[in-house]
Amino acid sequence: MSTQPNSAVTWKNVPTQTVTAGGVTFAYRELGTHNPGPPVVCLLHLAAVLDNWDPRVIDGLAVKHRVIAFDNRGVGASSGSPATSMEEMARDAITFIKAMGFDQVDLFGFSMGGMVAQEIVLMAPQLIRRMIITGTGPAGGEGISKVARVTYLDMVRGWLTFHDPKQFLFFTRTPSGIRAGKEFLARLKERSSDRDKEITITALQAQLKALRRWGEKPPADLSKVHHPVLVANGDSDRMVPSQNTHDLARRLPNSELIIYPDSGHGAVFQFHADFVPKALAFLAR
Question: In the predicted model, is pLDDT for residue 12 greater than 80?
């Protein structure tokens, strides 16, 4: 069972805790207010560990909500062998949520996390109240099976130019996109102590396999997902092509869509000052 959050802490200094369930010790961080509503559980993107969450977004949500982020099995400081499918990741997330003692949660999934969120809501609809899914697409979505190729290309591009690959993967190459990328990467370094373990090559390869499988999978019937869903992305996402976001919003019967201009995969981080109030308003409805 989790401890109660302390509203004085921020993403920069919140301690990392663990909970063990299903043979896995999950590393997580928890902060925020004593809101009587469901907590917000955050689902990580490809190759991410806890330190990859934007502090402005997490702290912004934590003003009004209890917010919990955790490392997937076999990723960062969580034990076990990494999952090779979105379904496995969803089952692990359900195990984690139940181990934390929550009967119902809101989900915030970014990129791969948004795919995992879709699987969770299909597997355990009663566990979810609302979902925010950003930079993501549906199973079988256009270009999703090619994420591995785009990722490897931009990793090489980053290595050759001494840039973090996220500068290319998450942001546009326009002046505002380049500036937003630099600001985002600087925010990720604000936490200086008790940092998470980096993802291993084995875990990255497992996740890329899961993404390829998701991209090749027949589309799910999302018409039965009647939960309120906030869907967001940039208009120029290279990793998960932006048309997937429009497709997802069309196929979810109770969805709202936000598309940010001149932005890519990391649009909600680039436009955090606009996104956080919109997300809080959505969760408050």
Answer: yes
Domain spans in the chain, listed from the N-terminal domain onward: 16-284
CATH architecture label of 16-284: 3-Layer(aba) Sandwich (3.40)
Predicted TM-score of the model (pTM):
0.94
Among residues 113, 97, 116, 117, which one has the least CA distance to residue 105?
A: 97
Tens digit of each residue's pLDDT (9 = 90 or more) over 136-176? 999 998 878 777 777 767 777 777 776 888 888 999 999 99
Asked if 176 and 245 touch (Cβ cutoff 8 Å), the reply is: no
DSSP states of the chain as a string? -PPPP-TT--TTTPPEEEEEETTEEEEEEEEE---SSPPEEEE--TT--GGGS-HHHHHHHHTTSEEEEEPPTTSTT--SPPPSSHHHHHHHHHHHHHHTT-SSEEEEEETHHHHHHHHHHHH-GGGEEEEEEES---TT-TTGGGHHHHHHHHHHHHHHHT--THHHHTS-SSHHHHHHHHHHHHHHT---SSPPPPPPHHHHHHHHHHHHHHHHSPPP-GGG--S-EEEEEETT-TTTTTHHHHHHHHHSTTEEEEEESS--TTHHHHTHHHHHHHHHHHHH-
Adjacency order of strands within the sheet including 40-43: 16-21, 24-32, 66-70, 40-43, 105-110, 128-134, 229-234, 255-260
